Amino acid sequence: MGDFNWCGVLFVLQLVDFHEDLLLPEAVFVNRVKPLVHNPGSLMVTSARVYFQPAELNNVGESTISFPLRTIARLYKRRHLLRQTGLELFMKDGTSVLFSFETSAVRDRVYGVLRSHPDLAHLSRMSIVDITRKWQNEEISNFEYLMYLNNEADRSVNDLTQYPVFPWVIKDYSSSVLDLQNPNTYRDLSKPIGALNEDRLEYILERFHSMPPCEPDMGIPPPFMYGTHY
Question: Is the pTM of this model over 0.85?
Fold first, then answer.
């Protein structure tokens, strides 16, 4: 990545407004994270926008894109590939962009620059108590509430390794009208999804009991029931 130092110079040439001030001493190298795609490039923060310039090695002819600071509604520090290197920007129109930095220190420095900007200094996130109360009072939908919980749990639609998780509650998919007062409408919530199928559960338990005991020195993990994603 050190071969792209010329990016900082090119940023000056591609500013939307030449009156913008650069708020970083130099462009930082990032990956823009999308589902199944890591797009390497450089990021710069100015007094008005966040710029992302895709690296030429992509050879796809993508131009520099920018995100006005006044349109940013929320900032989230994220894990990416189990490392605290991600930063996700949520826009007021509901879209978002996720960047992964080389180190958590660089990520935190960029986050600090953004949060200290007058347009973003007063950003606040509603507490889980307040959002739960709004949900209970039917001021927000189930979807909005669950997406809030997923965001707070470090999940993002931009990262398939930490994609939002939604509960499977209903088991009646044949009735034209759901009777929410009927217990048979709901699945057995005493078991995880992987245990609802009796045949599959029997196989998983058999495999669990046949696993070797945990031996950390040999790199053998403790027995487990589910070894894959949801």
Answer: no
